[in-house]
Amino acid sequence: MAELATIARPYANALFDLAKQQSQLDRWSNMMGVLTTVSAHPTVSAFLASPDLPGSAKASRLAQLCGDDIDDQAEKFLQALADNDRLLLIAEISTQFEALRAEEEKSLDVEVICAFEMSESQSEGLARALSKKFNKEISIQSRVDSNLIGGAVIRAGDIVIDGSVRGKLNKLAETLSAI
Fold first, then answer.
1. Angstrom distance (rounded) from CA 83 to CA 77
2. Domain of 113?
3. Between the chain's N and C termini, which has fewer beta carbons within 10 Å?
4. At which of 72, 102, 132 does a domain end?
5. According to the model, what pLDDT value does residue 175 have?
């Protein structure tokens, strides 16, 4: 996994620089989202992984599948990926592009997994606290996981804060077994 991230990084950086230069971060974000979604389809994914066709044909077909949701520059980007046999990195490039965009825009998407539904005031309080901690604008997406006994798990970028009862019990068990 780390190897894919390393290989995808220069493409994500170049794409981000281009999008930023053209003041089209939103547009590229949308196009990369479409490319990621389409390329993740099992049939398309198998097609892209197939050694039977040249990369340029794969890139052209992927562009056709995306239709008007991508522009000529995105098609050229796909051709550059195809020329270097990197079409299978689209999802990782998109992930890294979004991370660069979030850093640029000083925003952070946070996922909160709770044992119970969060109230609006709890969500706002958590957003304020995380905003202060990370010095970024916070966007919270919450969901309920009935497997949690209580508490919550917070995922903010690559940081995970496990405040669930299950997480605390697991930590206690690890501590006791080390004694």
1. 10
2. 107-178
3. C
4. 102
5. 84
Same domain, yes or no, for 133 and 169?
yes
115 and 88 housed in the same domain: no
- What per-residue string of b and e applies to 61-79 under the rule 16 or more CB within 10 Å gives b? ebbebbeeebeebbbebbb
Asked if 87 and 20 sit in the same domain, the reply is yes
Give the C-alpha separation, 68 to 60, whole Å: 13
Indicate whether 104 pLDDT > 80: yes
List, in order, residues 6 or more apart from 137 with CB less than 8 Å away.
105, 106, 107, 108, 131
Q: Which of 34-38, 105-109, 117-121 has the lowest mean pLDDT?
A: 105-109
% of the chain residues with pLDDT over 90: 64
**Mean residue pLDDT across the chain:** 90
Distance CA 179, CA 177 (A): 5
The pLDDT, as a whole number, for residue 159 is 83
Q: Which of 18, 23, 33, 14 is nearest to 98 (CA)?
A: 33
Q: How many domains does the chain have?
A: 2
